[in-house]
Amino acid sequence: MKKVILLGFVSIVAVLLVIWGPDGRDLYLLQKHFENSNQAAELDGGPWPRLSDVCIACHGFKGDSQNQRYPSLAGQPAPYITAQLQNFASGTRSNPYMTPLAMTLSEAEIKALADYFAKQRPGNNASFSPESSLREKGRTLVESGACGACHGAQLLGHEGFPRLAGQGFDYLLAQLDNFASGKRVEATGVMKTIASAASPDDRKAIASYLASLATDSN
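Structure (tokenized):
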């Protein structure tokens, strides 16, 4: 029975293509393209409307931000994203936009967002051009500070430690300043120790180097 239905459908399509000609064929192919694209999108991020679409304005399409002020979520470890959303919701971490948003999320929605962004491939920070001397100073500071011990050899993050490579310069600098001042905290206190020991110029150099790092090896 299924074979008969399929043959009937193919026959109808063949007749329509004869009637419509090349224009009809192109329309049919375009429709199939949209159908396939929609199916791929739903497999990637779930059915529409998607919760992750709320994040596009600040964090970019699929979490790949090219705005230096906002973090790129693409490729961030799921445990890290989960922890930060929970921190925003509880008030442990404060932001005028993220705090009220996180407070509306259920645990299931937090997990869904974390899993979605974690599987996205991050792009390089193409809109940032570092000063060569500042970048080199930052590289020396990052290597001597052994940042890779927590954030991974390529600084792409793992488990509860975020990806630093390719993040926005302004965002990285703001977070280092926040850790140094105590405005932002984390359980171990390591980031406060590192950031407060660095001078403002050192923090600028570190942010410059991290923002310029490629993410291709992820």
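The chain is about 60% helix and 0% strand. Residues 179 and 192 are 5 Å apart (CA to CA).
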